[in-house]
Amino acid sequence: MSVNEYDVLVIGGGIAGMEAATALGDMGFSVVLVEKEPSIGGIMISLSKVFPTTDCASCISSPKVSTVAHHQNIKLLTYSEVLDVRKENGEFKARVKQKARFVHPEDCTGCLKCEQACPVMVPHEFNQGFVGRKAAYVPFDTAYPRSAVIDLNNCIFCGACERVCPTNAIDFLQKDEEEELSAKAVLITTGGKLFPMERKKEFGYKKISNVINGLQMERLLAPTRPFNTVLRPSDGKVPGKIGYVLCAGSRDASLGNPYCSRICCMYSIKQAILLMGALPLVDVTIHYMDIRAFGKGYEEFYRQAVDMGVQFVRGRVADLNELENGDVLMKSENTDTGKIVEEKYDLVVLAAGILPETHNRTATEALGYATDSIGFIKPRADTIGATEVSEGVFAAGLGTGPKDIVDTIAEADAAASSCASYMKENFGKERAEKILRELM
Amino acid sequence: MAEYGVAGKTLKVDLDVRNLLMDYGASGAALCFNCGNCTAVCPLSENGAPFPRSMVRFVQLGSRQDILHSPEPWLCYFCNECSATCPRDAKPGNTMAAARKYQIRSATIGPVADMLVTKKWGIALLLAVTSLFYFAGLYYVGALKLPTQLLFQAFVPEEVMHIAGMVAGIFAVAVMGIAILRVLYWISRGRQSRYITISKKISAAIRSLPLVITEVVAQRRMSKCETGRPRWIGHMMTMWGFIGLFVTSGLIYMINPNLTNYPYSFTNPIQILANVSAAVLITGMCLILLDRRNHRATTQDHDYFDWVFFYTIFAAGITGLVVEAFRFSGLLMPTFIAYSIHIINVLFLIAFAPFSKFAHVGIRPFVIWYSKYAGLV
Amino acid sequence: MPERIGVYVCWCGGNIADVVNVKEVAKHAAGVPEVVVAKDIMFACSDEGQKTMVDDIKNLKLDGIVVASCSPVLHEQTFRRVAERAGLNKYLYVQVNIREQDSWVHAHDKKGATEKAEELVGMGIEKLARATPLNPIKVELTSKVLVVGGGVSGLTTALELAREGIHVTLVDRDRYLGGFVRRLPDVNPVHRPGKDVIADLYSRVVSTGNVEILSGTDLLEVSGSIGHFRARFKERSGHIRHDADRELLSRAERECPVEVDNEENFGFTRRKAIVLPDDRVPETPYIDMEHCIKCGVCQRLFGEGVSFDASDIEFEEEFSMVVQSTGFQPYLPGRGEFGYGETRRVLTLPEFLRLADTSGKTLVFNGRQVRDVAFVYCVGSRQTETGGPNTYCSRYCCTSTLNTDSYIKKKFGSSINSFHFYRDIRAYGLYETMYERASREKGLFIRYDPASPPSVTAEGERVKLVTKDSLTAGRDIEVSADLVVLVTGMMPSEDGKKLSAALKVSSSKDGFVQELHPKLRPVETTVGGVLVGGTAQGPKDTHESMISGAAAAAKASTLLMKGYTELEPYVVTVSEQKCNGCTQCVTECPAGAISMVEMEGRQVASVNVAMCKGCGACAAICEPEALQLIGYTYPQLRAMVSFSPQPLGAQSK
To answer: Which end of chain A is more exposed for a tag (fewer CB within 10 A), N or C?
Structure first.
């Protein structure tokens, strides 16, 4: 194992990680960015459009991906996980495992021949299970690196992919590789995930076919969408009446999550506007408690939805039931009138909230940061406006709390700035000396 | 359908009323953020009532009038589905119970009820008064002495029993009667029926009777809540057990006022009715107790007001059986003591009835009747 | 001039290809003589798409590329980097917009949209065929930044930059730093007084040794462009020595005969003409000459330390970059708005906070104890229904009010009852727990419809509020209170608007500073070298303002650590021979970049390349065509305009 030295270790390659890594790289620091998925891009790259500008999400994030990919100061380790990271003598030492893709990325051209040849079909995570992918697959269209991966858990070892690969990039004997890294500072941008809605039995998520969550609807609307239009899962019918359930999995003591997830009002309004455009005859009703359109341009965006004919009904949805033809029966109280509302929808979208991604928390536990009851990383006690969570350790993005893209970018840049200041203060002289030595 | 009050009439916020209701048990009412989940989740809301949220809202605003004018607390069966799913853990079920308590308190003698309902020493006081009354009565007829024979008439002369019973009974019935009338008056003010002519009113009243009967006899609407079936069975058994014992006492009073051949043997049909009723009563109460233990996290907070009622009935049943057991064992003093306790227990139960949760026995059937009549359910 | 051109037509998933037949367009372009290769790509911006272009440039020895895709706003830099990676001059690349300008606006006319795309691509090829390699204009950057505004955001920006070794000048009109936060009694989420938070920040800033703090200083003028901003300051004299002895100061304050309302506390307290820092920073006293009667009491104590006639000092400095952190100003309700200014029991939230902070153990207003407080939310914000100008949400107010609620209940005990007349409670994210806390502490929430807001009328010593409550099915609810607090929103600061105008920074529709991209670039403005932090860009709370300030620091240090920046070479050149000295271009130029100079006895135009924005307005108005915009020369423009598409097959090779 070789020990590689970097200035900053960034854990997580979503929009927060990419923004911070780019900022630090531009400042001249050497950055190693570790991402557990085969491609960087995080959640943002799978979204349809962003609010309130309705820019295409992957359009505005792929330049970031490209910048990170080609930045001379950023070392990108995808399909890799930090096994553990700890502080030793003022610096951080980390063990990183690069998982075997069973493909050599430097030889893979992303031609997709292996994908076509592979006989195994499993649900496609990127497309939220709507369509399938092969066991040998390229994660998605705008993935970086655009290299195939073989999902060994589902692979049947038939060897079809190996036979058709024109560059012999497939190697079933490839092993995981471990390396030791050292860094002066650590930046945690591990992101978040959607609240598992199956935990709310009343909503019948995963039991009722036509109840989907917000990310699933994003995929149905995205430019790289699985189908040509918005369809409902049970019978492929184009929905004429769609209902949104806000605060699903959030602001709910009975589910143990007292927080508001901050983005669901806005992403539901955005999806509603897109749906009104994509399906001209559709009726969209949003069932809410408070409409939290608080950011710049957000209130105006909300008004736009109202003007376009999106219905807003105040009253938290109590339960969903499946009808024989696949329709969903939704029950709530319309608190403005005090009457019970029983509404039949073709499709119901749960505006699911955000939880932190805690997939590999044990690896970073030794860094000494505090977390709250849900698992979000807290800033250092009694600080304000700070991204430092422990000495030399910074965090930004969904990992510290639910937030939208704008606030993520600001927090990521702030973290980069504080990280740079920290390094300048603690390693300034050392750095100056190193540069001097390199020049000589 | 539930109403949020009389339109056009301004509601003046009164925090003192709110605070009183919160003392009465609506502790979580302030937490409610009016999302409507409870109302939508309520299994009985298909028929338009009850609406937990309207009650909680009235409590938040301290609207005495709206709380008193609402039939909802009487139509609610306290299944607590609302509390189980409340996103703020505001326990709307508790607020419903508190509202019912408040209606009872307002319909009976307010200050006395306040004392009994919110001050623990109130119950002790009433118990002491009842005991005093009992012993005074015995003294008055010169029966305040230790017994020498195992004979119930020797313990307590039948005249004393009858007078004590009648006094307590008349008191209870009077208070209860007034309470029923007041509650009905308020509710009719709040939710007017649409009938104008007397004949229409009478025919509507008669048409509404069947629901009253099914609810009183079988609490059919209560069985709608799936998780509450053990509770429903328990309550039915408690109720019928109690009715059985009540009927027994009545029969004895009517056909054997001098208590000849008393106590009866086990094969006596009246005795059999009494024993079976007692058994049914106690089993029912055990079922309820078990159900409360199992659902501890989501059931409404049963305060001492609730438990006093529960245990008074439970005790009445148990002490009765204890008396019988001691009687058959032939022990004098234990039987006498147990008998005294049993009588005091029952007298207390009767006197306390209109101020306690027991009041639902009298008030609820009438409220259901009116609600059906006025088209609220 | 490129002779081997590659044309790439992007599908953009379905965004373009759903309407425009991209394969046709590529085929059409292939027919043009200079075009060596014409392809359609699924996502030109993806790494795969980029790789295709890089490989083609290298292998086919292309000397120019046309990418027909989305707007240059999104990907111009992306594709320029593609050209650079392949060793091609990045200005020999033309982007043709067939998405925003075609497929997205002609969605119902596929044939027409395809034809338009062909025409647009043809024009792009014409332009490229007459293009020359260009080099960006390099501007050296010294490590000197001007931060305008010493509030919590400006202080954070200054701190972060100073820690990185960059020299900062922090200027604030106010004698004491901290802006709005300074006057908060309780800052969420640390629950410490604002003065403390500011003092902490300030001491950290000072200890870096890299920040020049100009408080009590007016920014008179600022102009220039990245690398060369010139600012003129006027440091207002305090008329008393900065390091005046504390004990003497206390004595002077006691003996000063002049007493006026203390504007720091909206007049709830009084102060003397000689003003002490009172835990504010910097800890310099001053004499308020507007009210001072020059009685000489303090002069006798300090001797030469006090100088009534001391003059203000004006001076100039140059900076590489400017950060606008000018903050906001609170909305001021109109007279009669919810009873403000008429009923003496209505205050705004900032006023109420000062009242609460300066009250002792009980909350007292106008000699009466205050028990029942009614908050009315969304005053001055979300004004769509009422026709007001502020249609935006002011973001910070819901959480600030909930925090205030907790603060007064903690300080004044359970005697306080609060009523909240709201529209939506926007206690977003983790702040939801503050809403829960306010409910738990028995705050009563009443939801009003903006079309019929609460009426506020005086009733004896108290106030009566009546509104339709949508939580009680529209019933009229009446609340009696001792005090009404209007939760006022944020408005763009007037001083900020002046600064933006001077720097030519654009504003958004809501009046706040326009950021370069609303999602991805929240702290950069449309002007190179000018950044924006804090509430100047839009409403936000204390924590968010600090994060924004740190983000601005990151953007600044990125450029400054490199030591230089590159400006677009799209500037205007002057052909002195053709210039007839009419001076119309001087007035036409919006950036003030053109001046007349003497040459060979006559006046000719001269362009300051650093200030030129490349808009081309001067070139458009120049009759003799002496002014020409590089990258958009007359031959290029004429070729583009006169281009008409040939049918496929009719082109000669």
So the answer is: C
Domain span including residue C619: 572-629
Residue B142 has pLDDT above 50, yes or no: yes
DSSP string, B288-316: HHHHHHHTTTTS----HHHHHHHHHHHHH
Task: List the single residue in A with minimal CA-CA distance to C509.
Answer: A297
Question: CB count, 10 Å around CB of C111?
Answer: 10
Q: Is the pLDDT of residue A411 over 70?
A: yes
Distance CA A279, CA A277 (A): 6
Q: C520 φ, ψ to 5°?
A: -95, -15
Chain A residues interacting with chain B (CB cutoff of 8 angstroms) = 202, 247, 251-255, 289, 314-319, 331-335, 338-341
Q: Which residues of chain C does B11 touch, with a Cβ-Cβ cutoff of 8 Å?
A: 469, 472, 475-478
List the single range of A87-101, B207-221, C214-228, C430-444 with lowest mean pLDDT. B207-221
- Judged by a CB distance cut-off of 8 A, whether residue A336 touches chain C is yes
Residues in chain C closer than 8 A to A425 (CB atoms): 163
As a whole number, mean pLDDT of residues B339-365 equals 87
| Sequence ranges of chain A with CATH classification 3.50.50.60 | 3-99+176-191+357-439, 196-353
Question: B36, A247: Cβ pair inside 8 Å?
Answer: no
Give residues 3 to 32 of B whose Cβ lies within 8 Å of C: 3-5, 7-13, 15, 18, 30-32
* ipTM (interface pTM): 0.94
pLDDT digits (tens, 9 = 90+) for C66-125: 999 988 877 888 899 899 999 999 999 999 999 989 998 998 999 999 999 999 999 999
Q: How far apart are CA A128 and CA A134, in angstroms?
A: 15
Residues C483 and C203: their CA atoms lie apart, in Å, by 38
* Cβ-based contacts of B95 with chain C (< 8 Å): none
Q: Do C163 and A296 touch (CB under 8 A)?
A: no
Test B40 with A316 for CB contact under 8 angstroms.
yes
Q: Are residues C227 and C167 in the same domain?
A: yes
pLDDT at residue B129, rounded to an integer: 84
Total domain count for chain C? 5
State the DSSP code for B269. H
| pTM to 2 decimal places | 0.91
**Would you call C460 helix, strand, or coil by DSSP?**
coil
Of all residues in chain A, the one with the smallest CA distance to B47 is A340
* Residue range C214-230, pLDDT digits in tens: 999 999 999 888 999 99
C-alpha A209/C-alpha C218 separation (Å) is 65
pLDDT score, position A96:
96
Assess contact for A266 and A298: CB atoms under 8 A.
yes
DSSP B47-95: GT---HHHHHHHHHHT-HHHHHT--HHHH-----HHHHH-TT---HHHH
CATH 3.30.930.10 given to domain A100-175: no
The contacts of residue A280 (CB under 8 Å, 6+ apart) are none
Q: How much helix, strand and coil, in percent to the nearest 5, is found in chain C?
A: 35, 25, 40
3-state DSSP helix/strand/coil % of chain A, to nearest 5 = 30, 30, 45
Q: What is the dihedral of CA A408, A410, A416, A420, to 10 degrees?
A: -160
Can you tell me whether residue A270 is helix, strand or coil?
helix
Query: Does residue C21 belong to any structural domain of this protein?
Result: yes
- Of the candidate CATH numbers 3.30.1480.10, 3.30.160.270, 3.30.420.40, 3.50.50.60, the domain formed by A196-353 belongs to 3.50.50.60
CB contact under 8 A, C444 and B32: no
Tally B–C CB contacts below 8 A. 61
Which of B11, B37, B54 should we substitute to test contact with A (largest number of A Cβ atoms within 10 Å)? B37
Model confidence over C416-466: pLDDT tens digits? 999 999 999 999 999 999 999 999 999 999 999 999 999 999 999 999 999
